[in-house]
Amino acid sequence: MCENCRGTGRTYDYDNVSTRITPCPNEQCRAEARRQSRKHIDRIKQYFGMGVSA
User: Fold this and answer.
1) Helix (H) or strand (E) holding 14
2) What is the pLDDT of residue 38?
3) Which pTM value belongs to this model?
4) Which of 1, 10, 27, 49, CA to CA, is 20 to 30 A from 33?
């Protein structure tokens, strides 16, 4: 987990008008966030009786 994203895989760029969400520059954080996201999606699909992704 890096200091930029705190393990979420994304960073926020704030200015006075808008907020931009950008990928974390650390590849390990992005990969871990994708893995966690896949796990959550698979749990939801399993709950609703849909197939689990490979």
Assistant:
1) strand 10-14
2) 92
3) 0.64
4) 49
